[in-house]
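Regression test case RT-17, inverse folding.

Input:
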């Protein structure tokens, strides 16, 4: 008796490693060590995808009308950050997107200055 699971072709798993291999053309890292990390902001420069472009590349171009972090793009596309970084490196090289440094966190206020202002206000 034959096993029915071996007779049927294997279905394409949405998050399977085969799909990621195809999407990234077998690369696990970008060609260059670029400025990309999970908080790097990406914004579209050319809002028209090129002909013959992968659907994932086109999706990135469409969703990055306003700056999105690499982590947000990864979440929207439901792809690992490593795969998205490879795709973004391709788009950076072709000039379709640009990477911006994240907005730096506000520095902590000077406690002594705040205390001086408080004392000055209390003395009024």
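Golden output:
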């Amino acid at each position: 008796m034959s096993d029915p699971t071996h007779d049927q072709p294997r279905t394409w798993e949405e998050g399977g490693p085969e799909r990621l291999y195809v999407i990234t053309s077998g690369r696990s890292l970008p060609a260059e060590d670029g400025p990309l990390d999970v908080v790097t902001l990406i914004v579209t420069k050319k809002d028209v995808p090129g002909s013959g472009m992968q659907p994932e590349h086109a999706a990135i171009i469409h969703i990055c009308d306003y700056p999105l972090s690499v982590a947000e793009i990864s979440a929207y596309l439901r792809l690992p950050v490593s795969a998205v970084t490879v795709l973004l490196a391709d788009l950076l090289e072709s000039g379709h997107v640009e990477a911006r440094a994240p907005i730096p966190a506000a520095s902590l206020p000077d406690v002594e200055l705040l205390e001086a202002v408080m004392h000055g206000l209390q003395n009024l």
